[in-house]
Structure formats: structure tokens, C-alpha cells
């Protein structure tokens, strides 16, 4: 093998990568498209003649030939949390106040303000400088692998060239960011789809998210996705600040939105948010707000997270876009809990890149408050640029024969009586066997974040419920006994039925936390289900636990514990669990290797601010050593770890005679194990 050919191939790769970086990251191309294509074709020719020299990081390997038939689950080492939203200046001031109250007295706070890109979150893992895997956000804890599709994004480096002055060991790191589609590319795709009679995409965000889940990387490559990276994490490195994060990502060759600002005060933050909002419609990509982050990573760790979002960051959502249209009708929709929600049926109108024909009316009190009537001309907006809602009515344009909207007295689906619980604005269908409730519960059960039964969507659930094939969750696992009947149904057929039955069988492998979430217990979301199944190892332990035991779990409140007890107090739900256990679903937590230590079976309560870790990190250390963490002090508590500014929990521990230790004593306890 001639070394000159190998050198030529390496030189071509280096040159193409350099031009990719200049074009896709810096937006400063130095050669024409024709010259670039010539270089790529030359490299492709040399590699085809010398296949033994092809490497995974070659520019020719971005677009794979194989279809992705299954998007495998990926456990995020650090959860990909969503941001809490703020909508006005007072919300931002409140966020700043909470940050300063939680941090030790006298600490100065800086904020980094970045554009909130309207796209799909992605996490990209690099090992030894090479792109290893890429994953979606998923439920924040488990995403789906989309490596082949992310490789088609030309601004994503396949191999990292580490700068010589890098002070960190980045052998293993994650770069997180937002995949988006430029407005121009989105419009081109829709024009092409219109010509071929295909359904048009609603907006660039949905197009980007949908494209990431396509099976064919060649189609993904044609869609021209882009990405901004904004977060760098490593299991072995403690970075100093978010500003450093952004600078390091840029140094490593990632595309970073450089139009961010470090602010010394919350007034400076708000001023920059206004500047971003003014630029909003001049950008070639969509943003729906600004992201405000505490700059110091040390302070971020002190502030920690709640179940779904960090305490050290918020999204400042821009004022929603509005449009005028006619309200043709008000229909009433029955959800899986029996809640009956009014829905506005609108004259279709374009708003924020999508056509709106329906909008939420929330509840009857909202209709009365705004005096919304059929036939009205209404102002609609996208709340947080996502869910359409009616803001107000144009009274001057109201028809003369208009009549006030009347609340229904019977369920629109099953005609059962309606009831309204005390202290609630919602109205409910009293019949738990209402077909709409059954369908809603089944749809939730089969959804991706729950049992993830691919193919069992709304249309099939409607069909199966109407035909009497399924009524309860357990009936899904008996569909295999009706295979011959299913095949005869128009629209199905042998292959699609077998694929569905295979997906149902595969769903039996879903972990306990997903199964608990799938049951649809009121207030028990995905994050709460995970915390509960981490604490209680079996379904029997949950069923037999007291409300106090459940609510003592860190960040699990009384509304959740009360709802769980009410759910399992019903005999039919216990029978349902028994049926699902017989079907083979998992109702036991995975056995995690727990180190034998002095913390085994000891119960801890954390209070006040810890300097060495966030509360989540301290909790993780305790659990890893066999201990338990609860949120309330009782006579069964073994230790209260008291940090700075400890409050009422410390006083209660003193009154009950519970052992209190400070952070130094806690650290010694951890090191001893």
C-alpha cells in the first residue's frame, strides 16, 4: 500500500472537515459548493479503491446506508431536565429572589442569558474524541438512540481535535443542545411536499423532531438539520461556569450560538431579554424565548433540581403570537380521568407557522369569565408558543342572536351524570366505564413514556374498544388470542397484526417505574413514579405503605400519596394489578448493586444548604450506600443532615431526639464507607 495514497486520503479528510467547520459552524465558506463537491468525490473514489483505509470519522461516513429499524433506549447519566417557564418580569424577579435566598448569604450571582431555540433536545456522547452515541431527551431519564441521524448534521464533529492548551481531561464527555430546522429549509420542504400532494409539516420544530426519528439517514441528510450546542458535562470533570461551558464547546469545534450575554444583575438580564425579543423575527431560525442560567456551576450544584426542572435556570417565554378567527362551535372532550374539557372549534387560521382549527377553553369557569359564545370573533394565541388558547372576544362583532354558553349536565359520550368536586373547577363524568375514559386510559398506558407499545395509537384503540376487544389494560395482553379475528379487520392484515402483537410482547420488559406511570394514577407523573419505585422495591410495598410513608419520599407530596392510597383502595385496581402480573409485566424494581455500609437501611433527612453537593447528589450518595432519603422528619428518622440555614426540620429533629449531624460529619460518614 502506497503511503502517499494514505496521506492523500488523510489530507482530503482534514481539508473537507475544515471546510465543513467554516461553512456549517462559522458560516464563513472559503470555497464554492462545486469545489467542495469535487473534494468529496475525490475522497469517495480513493476510499472505494482502498476500503481498508475507511474510518468511522471520515466525512464520507456521515450518511449511513443501513436503516434504523429500532431506536434503542439510552439512559442519561445526568437527567435531561426541562425548564420551568416564566412569562413576565415579576416571574424573573421571583426566580432571582429564590436563587439568592437559597445560596449562602453574601454570595454574588451572575447569570448567562441565551436564546431559547425552538427545536428538539439532543445529547451527544464522545469517547476518546470520537462520536459514540446520540440520544433524544425522551422523558428526561431515558432517551432514544439517534446516532445515525445526528451524524448527518454536518456541524456535528465526528472526531474532536482537542486544543493543546485544554486544561480538562475530556476522555468521556457529553455535549447537549437543540436540533432545529432553518425557516428557509422548512419552507422549501413544504413546497416540495405540496407539489407531490403530501401532508404539510406544521412548523420547523415539529419537522426537526420528526426528522430525527426517521429510519433512513439519507432522508434525514436531505432535510438539512442544524444544531446549537449549549451544555458540556463529563462524569470526571467539574467545570467552573456556564460561560466556560460555551467557550469550551466552541473551542472543541461545536456550533455554539455566540449571541449570549453574562449579566451582573437581574435588571441587566431583563434588558437583554428585550433585546433578544426585538431580534426574534430577523433570525433565520425560530426562538420562543430566552434561557436564564446561574453562571457558576458550584452555585448550580448548591441550588440543585426539583423533579422536572433545575432550580438554577428558567425559560423567559416571549409574548405569544396572536390571530383573529371565528368560533364555529364548542365541543366537550372527556379525558382518561373523566374530566370534561371544553374545546373551541375554530375557522382555520394561520398562527406562528401552523394552521389552528381547535383551541383549549380550559374549563367552564373560563368560558363564563371571558363570556365566550359560539359565533364570536375571537383572539387566539399560542400559550408559550405551543398550545393555542382563546385570549378574548371581539364583542363589537358578536351576532345579535348570540346566546351564552351552557354547561352540559350529562356526559357527551356515555350520557351519564356529571359531578363537580368541591374546590375544583373541572367537571367529571361519574361513569368510570365511559368509553372515552377507557380510550384515554388505554392511550396513556400504551404511550411512549409508559408501556411504549409501538403501533397501538388512537385509531387502533378506538377500533378495539368499539369492537369490544379491549376494555382494561390487561385485555391488551390477551389480544394474541384474537389474532385470527384481528387479521380479518380491514386496514390491518397479517403483517401489521404480527408487528403489533410483537410490540405488545416487547412492552413486558418495561421497568417498574414505567409500569407504575402507565397505570395512570392521578398526579403520578414519570418522575414521581421513578422516585417511588426507587424507594419501594415491589408493588406490594407500595400497596401496603401508609400515606405518611409515601409522602416522606423526597419531593413526593401529600396529593400524590393520597391519590396512590385511593387508587389501591379500590378492589378493581388490585384485581387489575394481579391480571397484569399474570401477563408478565414487571412490578419489582431492578436490583441495583448496593455497597455494604454503615448506611444500610438508615433513613436520612437533608435540610439547609450543603456546600459540597446539591441535595440530589447527596441523596444519590446515600442511596448508593444502601440508605434511604425522605423529606420529612419522624421518630423513624436515623439522621438529619443539617446544612447552612437549616429550618423547621432541624427544630423537629431536636424535639424528637433524632441524631443531627453537620456536613463535615456527613462527609466523614461517606468516606468511611
- Morphology call: globular
Oligomer: single chain
Question: What number is the mean pLDDT?
Answer: 87
The CATH superfamily name of the largest domain is DNA ligase/mRNA capping enzyme
**Percent helix:** 25-40%
Per CATH, which architecture of the largest domain? 2-Layer Sandwich
Q: Which class of the largest domain in CATH terms?
A: Alpha Beta
Question: Hey, roughly how much beta strand do the residues contain?
Answer: 15-25%
Low-confidence region ranges: none
Number of helices: 25
The structural class is alpha+beta
* Main sheet overview: 7 strands, antiparallel
Layout of secondary structure:
Layout: H1 3-25, H2 33-49, E1 73-75, E2 84-86, H3 89-102, E3 111-117, E4 120-127, E5 130-136, E6 142-144, H4 147-150, E7 172-180, H5 183-195, H6 204-212, H7 217-222, E8 226-233, H8 242-251, E9 261-263, H9 266-279, E10 287-294, H10 297-303, E11 313-317, E12 322-334, E13 339-351, E14 354-360, H11 364-370, E15 377-383, E16 387-393, E17 418-419, E18 427-429, H12 435-446, H13 458-466, H14 473-476, H15 483-487, H16 494-506, H17 512-518, H18 526-535, H19 539-544, H20 547-551, H21 558-569, H22 571-583, E19 603-607, H23 615-624, E20 628-630, E21 639-642, H24 648-656, E22 659-662, H25 663-671
Parallel strand pairs: 2-11, 19-20, 19-21, 21-22
Antiparallel strand pairs: 1-6, 3-9, 3-10, 4-5, 4-7, 7-8, 10-11, 12-13, 12-15, 13-14, 13-18, 15-16, 17-18
Helix pairs in contact: 1-2, 12-13, 17-18
